[in-house]
UniProtKB/TrEMBL annotation:
Function, as annotated: Succinyl-CoA synthetase functions in the citric acid cycle (TCA), coupling the hydrolysis of succinyl-CoA to the synthesis of either ATP or GTP and thus represents the only step of substrate-level phosphorylation in the TCA. The beta subunit provides nucleotide specificity of the enzyme and binds the substrate succinate, while the binding sites for coenzyme A and phosphate are found in the alpha subunit.
Domain ATP-grasp fold succinyl-CoA synthetase-type: 2-210
Gene: sucC
Binding site for substrate: N273, G330, I331, V332
HAMAP family, per the entry: Succ_CoA_beta (MF_00558)
Record's protein name: Succinate--CoA ligase [ADP-forming] subunit beta
Length: 396
């Protein structure tokens, strides 16, 4: 689950991570009030207005701007709020901006220059250990840095049995070229950042940039945080931060119905019980000349109600030209699933695309007979190859 920048920063702050202070607002008037309060709290005389959406690259799309007066705060907030912000990480339609973060200006003048770094904490799946990835090239797309100057990206893996060690935090600060007070501040920053990552069951922390201010403070200017959805049951406060407006509405609807669903860009919808079988089904669709339009796992209770809901969700996609139902009857009986499909079909009415149903396992033969005798426009199959051949036929 992703959370907004302002939520991520407040979470980091609670673990002792120094942040760029800010106040969220959902109207231009509230943005002006936020700017006034921020000036009282921090002394800032300029403000950064940041669109709050679940996507990076906001500045490139016009979603991050500097305001040098309260009039500019109102004007810029009016421009950003309600806009469809398109960034390199959104679809071509972009995302609607519902809130802005009014943040203090931290690039204040001083005797020494400011520096920007990149830092993230994530799981290295190859080693099974958490990893801090960092670079001196902050403020840039890390993908671009990796492509053009890979030697400027450093990694530090953390042994889960002992956690982050002092020498590792000092090594990070050293590799970033810091010394004196900024070195000490970076060591503290790294410790607090890792504690936050571990404490909230995150799957990703990305701070870009981490700023060394002109007076040697180390602060998080931006923050992207993703939380492991499997751990939300023990992170109640974080679960409450979920903003469904930022998510695919079809995926939200499927989740509320207890279905595991991910939207894709293909033309063949698939309905399967079990994640592994779903992946194999997607492969079969691809091999057969189609492209999967979704990942949909109905789980072990593929009854008529769940099947009907799954059909309705798949049919919301106008690109779907066919639907493949692939059910293995282990715990669930195939004949009951078949009857559920027939009942669901009748409840929905005329389904405009062909449906291929492959049922294998307990009572598969009886299930095939139920489908064949239903009189509905449903193609039945028992073997996976039969289902693949049917897909080729209906897409031809």
């Amino acid at each position: 689950m992703n959370i907004h920048e302002y939520q991520a920063k407040e979470t980091l702050k609670s673990y002792g991570v120094a942040i760029q202070e800010g106040i969220v607002a959902d109207t231009p008037e509230k943005a002006v009030e936020a700017a006034k309060r921020l000036t009282e709290q921090t002394g800032t005389s300029w403000w950064v207005i940041k669109a709050q959406i679940h996507a990076g690259g906001r500045g490139k799309g016009g979603g991050v701007k500097l305001a040098k007066s309260l009039d500019e705060v109102k004007e810029i907030s009016s421009q950003i709020l309600g806009m469809q912000l398109v960034t390199p990480q959104t679809s071509k339609e972009g995302k609607k901006v519902h809130q802005v973060l009014v943040a203090q200006d931290v690039y204040y003048p001083g005797e020494s220059k400011t520096e920007e770094f990149y830092m993230s904490v994530l799981l290295n799946r190859a080693s099974g250990r958490n990893m801090i990835m960092y670079s001196t090239e902050g403020g840039m797309d890390i993908e671009e840095v990796a492509e053009k100057t890979p030697h400027l990206i450093f990694h530090e893996e953390i042994d889960p049995s002992v956690g982050l060690q002092g020498f590792q935090a000092r090594k990070i600060a050293f590799n970033l070229g810091l010394s004196g007070q900024s070195f000490k501040e970076m060591v503290k920053f790294v410790y607090a950042l890792y504690a936050a990552y571990d404490g909230i069951d995150a799957s990703l922390f990305e701070i870009n940039p981490v700023l060394k201010t002109s007076d040697d403070k180390i602060i998080a200017v931006d923050s992207k945080v993703s939380i492991d959805a499997n751990a939300l049951y023990r992170q109640k406060d974080l679960a409450a931060m979920r903003d469904v407006r930022e998510e695919d509405p079809t995926e939200v609807e499927a989740g509320e119905a207890g279905l595991n669903f991910v939207n894709l860009d293909g033309n063949v919808g698939c309905m399967v019980n079990g994640a592994g079988l779903a992946m194999a089904t997607m492969d079969i669709i691809k091999i057969s000349g189609g492209n999967p339009a979704n990942f949909l796992d109905v789980g072990g209770t593929a009854n008529a109600e769940r099947v009907e809901k799954a059909f309705r969700i798949i049919l919301k996609d106008q690109n779907v030209e066919a639907i493949l139902v692939n059910i293995f009857g282990g715990i669930v009986r195939c004949d009951r699933v078949a009857q559920g499909i027939v009942d669901a079909y009748k409840n929905i009415g005329d389904i405009p695309v062909p449906i291929i149903v492959r049922l294998q396992g307990t009572n598969a033969e009886e299930a095939k007979k139920i489908i064949d005798d239903s009189g509905l426009k449903v193609h039945s199959a028992i073997l996976l190859q039969e289902a693949a051949d049917r897909i080729k036929e209906v897409l031809a």
